[in-house]
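Hi again,

Forgot to attach this to my earlier email, sorry! This is the prediction with 2-acetamido-2-deoxy-beta-D-glucopyranose bound. I've pasted everything inline since the attachment limit keeps bouncing my files.
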Amino acid sequence: MTSKPTVWQRLVTCLSSLKSYLKVLCLVVTVFVLLQICSFQITKHSLSLPPSLFTYLKHQPEQASDNKTAYLVEKLRESVTFLPLKDYRFSNKPLEGHTWFMSSLLDNQTKGEAQYQEFPSDSSKGKLLCLKGIDKHDGSWNYYALALPEAIPTNAVLQKGLTFVSYNQYDYYNLWHGLSTMVPFVSWSLRNRCERPQKWVLYHWGELRFEMGHWLSEILRATYNQEPEFTRFIDQDNPVCFEKAVVMRHDQAGMSRERRMEAFDHIRRKARSYCNITSSKPRIGMTLLLRTGARAFRNETVVINVFRRECKRVNGCELNVSYSDNLTFCQQVELMKKTDVLVSPHGAQLTNLFLMDRNSSVMEFFPKGWLKLAGVGQRVFQWGANWSGMRHEGTWHDPVGETCEFLDTDRRCMSVYKNAMIGHNETYFGEWARRVLDKVNNRMKQNITEHNHSYDSLDECRC
Ligand SMILES: *[C@@H]1O[C@H](CO)[C@@H](O)[C@H](O)[C@H]1NC(C)=O
Ligand SMILES: *[C@@H]1O[C@H](CO)[C@@H](O)[C@H](O)[C@H]1NC(C)=O
Ligand SMILES: *[C@@H]1O[C@H](CO)[C@@H](O)[C@H](O)[C@H]1NC(C)=O
Ligand SMILES: *[C@@H]1O[C@H](CO)[C@@H](O)[C@H](O)[C@H]1NC(C)=O
Ligand SMILES: *[C@@H]1O[C@H](CO)[C@@H](O)[C@H](O)[C@H]1NC(C)=O
Ligand SMILES: *[C@@H]1O[C@H](CO)[C@@H](O)[C@H](O)[C@H]1NC(C)=O
Ligand SMILES: *[C@@H]1O[C@H](CO)[C@@H](O)[C@H](O)[C@H]1NC(C)=O
Ligand SMILES: *[C@@H]1O[C@H](CO)[C@@H](O)[C@H](O)[C@H]1NC(C)=O
Ligand SMILES: *[C@@H]1O[C@H](CO)[C@@H](O)[C@H](O)[C@H]1NC(C)=O
Ligand SMILES: *[C@@H]1O[C@H](CO)[C@@H](O)[C@H](O)[C@H]1NC(C)=O
Ligand SMILES: *[C@@H]1O[C@H](CO)[C@@H](O)[C@H](O)[C@H]1NC(C)=O
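Structure tokens for the complex follow:
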């Protein structure tokens, strides 16, 4: 019997607490709505101001002044929103689609061309790109935003002229990765009246970089007839907005073979002209480009002798044996101009292959273990040869070498094999060299005149 009042009591308590719940809920909703309005007013994307916001701003009571334009411009300045350059949400697929770099923006994907972004442009609705932050270790502490030219943030600096903003997933010292990053810019320039950048901004994972390897900066100096200048931001808080900016974040992806060859042809010509190369080439030039240390030949004497012997067999063939480490940039350009057959271990020095005349040949050597363990990356110079109009004549994988304590297919072995030395097989090297030289010899016989003049006629640069 005593249980009934208790039930009533509970119900009453429950109802009254429900009331207070509703009150609290109502309060929360009110605060939320207020916050939304506030945040809209202060920070909502300048990227797409909704028309309602304009109406809202127009009817602001503070706007006693009769200059509505000035007022709106001020509001637009304040509304520029900076987002982190590196978006950790996409760290599991950093290079796909919009990538983790400037992830809110999409690329112009014209068929056959490099994917790029241009600011201001139709797709940016006339807005400029602004960058902020000086972090060299974590790209999520550097920022980007879009702003109308009339309403860049109050504390921003306007950078005049064209700026190239480069994203590199690897680094600016490795010849191959560095060059791959630069090729789409060169291609863009070729399509845009040879326009060249006043400044560069270099990012790696959204982290700022202020320099690149010597070889790569020589390539840029030669290509654009000027020293590349890398932007340094003054401080953490002052953004820089660019009068005109072109952003590349996909290396050569999307470029057709024709476009790639056009860009490589252009860089080759510019490099030769920059280095004042006038020397004549032998009828057939064969070059052994050797490495010291990692991936050097274990017995260079034997290897040199095999190729010297095969070269001697062919009329007009000259062998040059050089170490990539002790050649200056222009010596490399000159040597490649004289080379029809490039013989070299897998390594960054092979990036020079595109500096040979078109249709020249490449022979590449690997230490033991790479074939099974190194993945598709070991094919970069096959791609590089194809993209620059050369002929990759195959690879030799050393069947013997360092011993690894695990199975040959165990990934842990790669650290043992990666930088090991390369042996030789005199019989195989000899037969292979003979095959390649015969092909080159036939090609030369067929149209010596054409070959003689192929580059003189192309030497006139478009830019
Ligand atoms: C209003 O402000 C804008 C921007 O500051 C300025 O260009 C314009 O001349 C001003 N107009 C008048 C009538 O003051
Ligand atoms: C992409 O670039 C082409 C050529 O410059 C241009 O015609 C086109 O409008 C651009 N598309 C976008 C979405 O910006
Ligand atoms: C090439 O020649 C020009 C003009 O003679 C000279 O100014 C320049 O320094 C030379 N370049 C190189 C890399 O030697
Ligand atoms: C290279 O091989 C030759 C011939 O087999 C041999 O005489 C020479 O000692 C070897 N050199 C080295 C550094 O192993
Ligand atoms: C080139 O480098 C090799 C190996 O590092 C060295 O033995 C040789 O003396 C160098 N040659 C020249 C001309 O500097
Ligand atoms: C090989 O080429 C380099 C660079 O062009 C040159 O300095 C060297 O004299 C050449 N060596 C031979 C043996 O031709
Ligand atoms: C390269 O070879 C291709 C195919 O054989 C030929 O059409 C082209 O004319 C050659 N190019 C040069 C520069 O020799
Ligand atoms: C070279 O590239 C073209 C186009 O990407 C491709 O069709 C061709 O098979 C490639 N050739 C070689 C030898 O890789
Ligand atoms: C060297 O190459 C020849 C020719 O391809 C091959 O028959 C021979 O088995 C190879 N020798 C070794 C030790 O791999
Ligand atoms: C030159 O050689 C290339 C490839 O070998 C061939 O396509 C081209 O027709 C030749 N040109 C002449 C004039 O013989
Ligand atoms: C090729 O060029 C060399 C040097 O410029 C010249 O002596 C030779 O006569 C030329 N050959 C042909 C077939 O034009």
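The chain has two domains: 80-255, 270-458. The domain at 270-458 is CATH 3.40.50.360 (Rossmann fold).

That should be everything now.

G.
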